[in-house]
Amino acid sequence: MFERFTKAARAVVTGAAEHAERDGGATVTPEHLLLALLDREDTRAAAALGRLCPPGRRPSLLAALSDARRRAGLSRADTEALADLGIDVGAIVDRVEETHGAGALSGGRRGSGRRTFSREAKAVLEKSLRVALARKDREIGDEHLLLALTATGGVVAEALADHGVTYAAVDAALAAPAPL
Fold this sequence. Notes:
single chain, mainly alpha, Double Clp-N motif, two-stranded parallel ribbon, 10 helices, protease, repeat, peptidase activity, Clp_R_N, Clp_N_dom_sf
């Protein structure tokens, strides 16, 4: 499938692996894919993100991702469902971090070496192929990766939606003429 990726999409995948390595993560996650998309300039996805979540709003987006990472990747919906059962995720996170240190639930750490893609990140890559095919595009571009991130659910899609970056909004931004 990787041979169908444009140069920009390949750069996102490579950038995601680099983000995972810098974070010390054992796997590449959808969050790493989003961080790599945010690094890009002069691509279709970068233009759409620039319109929908300009640089001034990105610290809020990154804070939302950080908060989700601290909760071991649980979405707000998951946290609320557990609260309905009498489970206080915030209290659990506090106790775990008190015992094991800040960020203890952020994911496994690993030394150097090649990073594998998490099940969720693989789902995003597969969804990007389905999005490209549905749009009758021959190649998978970084815009397809962004659309896939908004459509696969999870904390990244939740954080993006909270910042106005939904599938429909990205689709509209991609269809809009480029600003002069």
